[in-house]
Amino acid sequence: MTAATLDDARLDETFAALANSTRRAILARLADGEASVNELAAPFDLTLPAISKHIKVLEHAGLVTRSRHAQFRPCRIHPAALANVATWAEQYRHIWDDRFDRMDTYVQQLRQTPPKKAPER
Amino acid sequence: MTTSNDLRIERTFDAPIDLIWAMWTEPDHFANWYGPMGAKIPNAEMDVRVGGRRHIAMAMDTPRGPMEMFFVGEYREVNPKTRLVYTEAMAEADGNLMTAEKMGMPPGAHMETSVVVELEDLAGRTRMTMTHIGIPADSPGGQGWAMAIDKLEQRVAAHRI
Known about the structure:
The structure holds two protein chains of two kinds. Chain A is mostly helical. Chain A is built from six helices and two strands. Chain A has helices spanning 3-18, 21-30, 37-41, 48-60, 79-86, 89-112, and strands at residues 64-66, 75-77. A two-stranded antiparallel sheet of chain A has the order 1-2. Chain A starts with a helix and ends in a 9-residue tail after the last helix. Chain B is built from three helices and seven strands, in the order E-H-H-E-E-E-E-E-E-H. Chain B has a seven-stranded antiparallel beta sheet. Chain B is globular, with a radius of gyration of 18 Å. The A-B interface holds A 18-19, 24, 27-28, 30-33, 76-77, 79, 82, 85-93, 95-100, 102-104, 106-108, 110-111, 121 and B 1, 3-7, 9, 11, 13-16, 19-20, 23, 29, 32-37, 124, 128, 130, 132, 135, 137, 139, 141-143, 145-146, 148-149, 151-153, 155-156, 159, 161.
């Protein structure tokens, strides 16, 4: 795997994590300061395990970190991961890169089975 | 967040320039690679000459069922095999432009983007430079959460966490 594909995989995760209104609300709350899982759960009509699951997704995407020391393990936002999606055009880069990968594959297929009308080179 | 919204991608293909030009200008070829992951292009009308129209239908299965989207635009520059410029905007099924309001954007928001494709023959291989100009920060591609991220960033900045 190249560094680029690893970055892509990471970006996929970040976007997947952000594509959920509850998780965005959790991030917005954390932008005001660190909070415990209980505090994060308070505004939602969701069980603690459900909230924990959302937090795990955010953690995995690198958007949230949790203290290992304090007993209630407060959650903190990790703005560096957001920087990856900061330039909106980057989302389009993703789409175009996928397209050009397909173009490349398709072009090579065409060259291996030359069309009858146009003999190859 | 109102930083530059232009996107530039450069690629070199191990294929002659004629073929790469055809990828952009012949509907059958175009439909083969253009759809984003999981999407199909059931119809592509491309009148490739300056002022000519393009009308692209895109179909995809979403968790909420099948969905169809339409993109219309115009060719602005056509220099065969080396340079192609076209505009693109989302449209209704009938080809009329979709208004910004319909997409949940502020009224009058500029929703048209341009795509510039430049090709260079490298002795049988082809270098392609694609520039996508004017991608709106809150474009439909971003759905609602573009704005959510903006707000989030502002808050993060404000709190300097």
